[in-house]
Amino acid sequence: MSTLLKAGEPVPVSELVTRVLARNPGMMTGPGTNSYLVGHREVAVIDPGPVDETHIEAILQATKGRIRWVLVTHTHLDHSPGAQLLIEKTGAELIAFEQPAEGFQDNTCQPSKPAQHRHTLETEEFSLTALHTPGHASNHLCYLLHAEAMLFTGDHIMQGSTVVIAPTDGNMTHYLDSLSDLKQESIDRLAPGHGHLIEDATKEIDKLISHRLMREQKVIEALKQLGKGDLPLLLKKVYDDVPIFLHPVAQLSLHAHLIRLAELGRVARQQNDWLLSE
């Protein structure tokens, strides 16, 4: 899709959902973080984004003071820090998993109601079910809007790029399992934390699983060729189709793949090197 996303502008994406883009574009955030406003009479805000008065004001203007709930997909710094400011201005209830001890976490996110897997927020207009989807982050949630078969994916699925899985809080096995679990849900469209809506949910999920398994096969092939190798050496072989400037973040996902392959008994670690298991 060629239409540019414009920060601060409320854009209806369905009958029940409006998107407001935060002003935090970058290599890891794409055009910025999407905040989704669900409902009209009583509004749930999904991912209020970073601490930015201008962005929070745009959300308040778009919702006309009708915010009752703030829902967080995960507590990374581009998704949840704005929650505290929004709650101070509205008195809304914050629903989220508490943050893990590791990783780049938002320590200000203190939920008034801890989220639970498969817990549903029921209102007169809509139902939103929380689905625990660890992988990118151990406390990651997606939210399923049943009336529109729309899944708010946070960073579990992004439009236009793959997600970084950074150990130790990130876990590739959990990520692939979470993707597979989503195929059991009634989902038509994906509303990612970064980028445009994705219209064919099943096709996108299958594509992501295939891509990750392809990358793992490249790890195996590289180790067959090299015999053994450390992360920088393997990175050049396994991510030879990825621009060099992305290699520092690609190495995080490579590490996650190697940990998963070790768990499966296919590779082993020898000090700083990795090699195929005998």
Short description:
With 278 residues, this protein is of the alpha/beta class. It contains six helices and 15 strands.
Task: Outline the structure in words.
By secondary structure, the protein is an alpha/beta fold. The protein folds into 2 domains: 11-199, Metallo-beta-lactamase, Chain A (4-Layer Sandwich); 209-276, Arc Repressor Mutant, subunit A (Orthogonal Bundle). The chain is 29% helix and 22% strand. It is built from 6 helices and 15 strands. The chain has helices at residues 53-63, 82-90, 172-182, 201-226, 231-238, 247-263, and strands at residues 11-12, 17-21, 34-38, 43-46, 67-71, 93-96, 113-114, 120-122, 127-132, 141-145, 150-154, 189-192, 228-229, 267-270, 273-276. It has a 7-stranded mixed beta sheet with strand order 1-2-3-4-5-6-7, covered by helices on one side. Helix 3 (172-182) links the parallel strand 11 (150-154) and strand 12. Helix 3 (172-182) packs antiparallel against helix 4 and helix 4 crosses helix 6 (247-263). The protein is elongated, with a radius of gyration of 19 Å. It starts with 10 loop residues before the first strand and ends with a strand. The model has no long low-confidence stretch (mean pLDDT 94).
Uncertain runs:
none
* Global geometry: elongated
Roughly what percent helix?
25-40%
CATH class of the largest domain: Alpha Beta
Structural class: alpha/beta
Q: Reading side by side through the largest sheet, how are the strands ordered?
A: 1-2-3-4-5-6-7
